[in-house]
Q: What sequence folds into this?
């Protein structure tokens, strides 16, 4: 059994190119054997932004939290449990205004927990979520992926590596609002089906 976490960040729902690419990766992964998929749709906009109290609650040892801290840390606990349980992460996300949707950053701030998903060592931070593979399904209207003004893709790859997830590959449909956009989408769809094969 392969446990897959599908994280979606597009606000476009069924019309989303990044969601479509992620679904195609899932389709290929399902052909390889028995899978269980958990979907986390960040576009629901139900993730809180970190503030001082939530930050303190997230860092407090579970047994030492008071009731208010347990309430504040509950969503982060759930997101972290989803990551820990996953063998494979499929991350479907667009690039908005040269970077990630704000919900992706909110998710990252909640799952980056010292002592749980990473730890500090004498040699610097060490990710604790090792042995996992991540697929990024990326779409952008005009920003070339991994180009000079793409501030999301390198950041997301770095952040996942910071957590210990270093086996990261991606498929991208970029510049799809310009000339040849439909062809770029079709090419990316075909690549997505091959990516996990």
A:
């Amino acid at each position: 059994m392969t446990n897959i976490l599908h994280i979606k960040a597009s606000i476009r729902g069924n019309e989303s190119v990044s969601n479509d690419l992620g679904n195609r990766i899932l389709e290929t992964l399902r052909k390889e054997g028995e899978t269980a998929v958990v979907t986390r749709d960040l576009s629901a906009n139900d993730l809180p932004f970190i503030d001082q109290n939530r930050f303190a609650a997230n860092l407090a040892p579970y047994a030492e939290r008071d009731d208010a801290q347990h309430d504040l840390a509950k969503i982060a606990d759930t997101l972290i449990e989803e990551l820990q349980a996953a063998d494979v992460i499929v991350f479907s996300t667009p690039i908005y205004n040269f970077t990630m949707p704000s919900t992706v950053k909110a998710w990252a701030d909640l799952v980056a927990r010292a002592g749980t998903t990473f730890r500090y060592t004498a040699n610097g931070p060490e990710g604790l979520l090792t042995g996992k593979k991540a697929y990024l399904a990326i779409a952008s209207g005009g920003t070339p992926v991994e180009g000079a003004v793409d501030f999301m893709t390198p950041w997301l790859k770095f952040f996942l590596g910071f957590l210990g997830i270093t086996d990261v590959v991606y498929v991208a449909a970029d510049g799809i609002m310009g000339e040849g956009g439909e062809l770029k989408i079709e090419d990316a769809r075909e690549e997505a089906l091959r990516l996990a094969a």
Observations:
- The chain has one domain: 2-195.
- Strands lie at 2-8, 35-41, 88-94, 118-121, 124-127, 133-139, 167-173.
